[in-house]
Design goal:
Helix content: 55-70%
Strand order of the largest sheet: 2-1-3-4-5
Number of strands: 5
Distance between the termini: 18 Å
Oligomer: single chain
Strand content: 5-15%
Structural class: alpha+beta
Shape: globular
Length: 214
């Protein structure tokens, strides 16, 4: 079994593509996956286009409007996740597509309609979306971001749960080939990566993107 944490900017098209990459990997690998999308919610991510994705929202909206939008989208995602991790992911993907691809403006009505389309318990969703439980869940996510030394969106951490002593692999470049190797290549282990990272002839981009997480 593999546990994968994908750290995202929830309103970034590149991160949306990373979500598709990780979901495809979970379908292709003949192993159980525990997959979590973790939104990075801080002022730097809200205001910066980390992925160089020509983020139009960050060009058009004021700082106050961006903060309002991010806060509500993340809270709604957490509320949906209280009804199950998969349902939370389904909701997030749906609201992202409405805002990022279709250009719809976020509103309470759009959030509720999306919840209905995702077959959520709408009454429970409405109760949870601005609750202290949702706020606390966001704070726990940000602690996880700090604990795993994640400093930018579109980063993933993979743990092989079959070996409780094995460290995790952090990649700041979410590519299918890298994630696939981390799950399937017996030579692509944290110990081997540690050795490779210390070699001066290792490709510089790989040294920058691959790290080991305790």
């Amino acid at each position: 079994m593999f546990e994968v944490f994908l750290f995202i900017d929830p309103l970034c098209k590149s991160c949306r593509n990373s979500e598709n990459t990780v979901l495809k990997l979970s379908e292709d690998i003949d192993s159980k996956f525990k997959l979590q999308f973790v939104p990075i919610y801080n002022l730097k991510v809200v205001q910066t286009d980390f992925c160089n994705s020509n983020n139009q929202l960050k060009k058009k909206l004021s700082s106050e409007e961006l903060s309002y939008l991010y806060k509500n989208v993340v809270l709604d995602y957490k509320a949906a996740s209280f009804q199950g991790i998969k349902k939370g992911r389904r909701y997030l993907l749906a609201i992202q597509d409405k805002i990022l691809s279709k250009g719809l403006k976020y509103s309470d009505e759009l959030a509720i309609q999306t919840a209905k389309e995702c077959n959520l318990d709408v009454e429970m969703f409405e109760e949870d979306r601005r609750s202290k439980l949702a706020i606390d869940s966001i704070e726990k996510d940000q602690q996880l971001v700090n604990d795993m030394n994640v400093d930018s969106p579109a980063s993933a951490v993979i743990f092989n749960c079959s070996d409780s002593e094995r460290d995790g692999i952090l990649t700041r470049n979410v590519e299918y080939s890298t994630l696939f190797r981390a799950c399937c290549d017996t030579e692509f282990t944290p110990d081997n990566i540690k050795n490779a990272l210390s070699e001066s002839n290792l490709n510089k981009s790989k040294r920058n993107h691959l790290h080991i997480i305790k």
